[in-house]
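@channel sequence for tomorrow's demo:
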Amino acid sequence: MQYNKDSHINNVDDVIKFFRYIVDERNVNFNPDDMFEDYMSADGTNAFTPEECEIYNRLVEEAFKICDKENVGIYEIPRCGSNTIDAPRDLMKELRNALTEVKEAIAGKRKLQSADSLLDEL
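C-alpha cells (generated this afternoon):
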C-alpha cells in the first residue's frame, strides 16, 4: 500500500497496517517515537523524502490519537508478520524458556536438537 497526503489512520487496524508497511515494505526498524527525518539509509542518505516524512509523521500522530482513544498501547502494536510476539512480557517469557533449555543442555540434563531449532522457537 502506498500512503499519500490523502491517507489517514482511522482505527487500530489502520495503525497495524501502517506500521507493517513501514517495517515490511520500507524495511525500517520503526519506532513510533522517532521522526521520519531521522531515518537513514545504509549509504548515509535520508531513507524518506521530505514529502514522505511529512505524511508519515502525520500518520504516526494520528496513530497515537487512535490508540489513546481506543485504549490500546501503541508500543504493543505488532510491526511485522503474524509470528511476532506482541508484548514485552511474552518476549521475556520466551527468552527465559530458551535460556533454561540452554542451561539444562550445558548441565547435561537435556540434549538440544540444534542451536538453530532453539533460535527458531524465538
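heads up for whoever presents: The helical segments are 12-25, 50-69, 88-106, 115-121.
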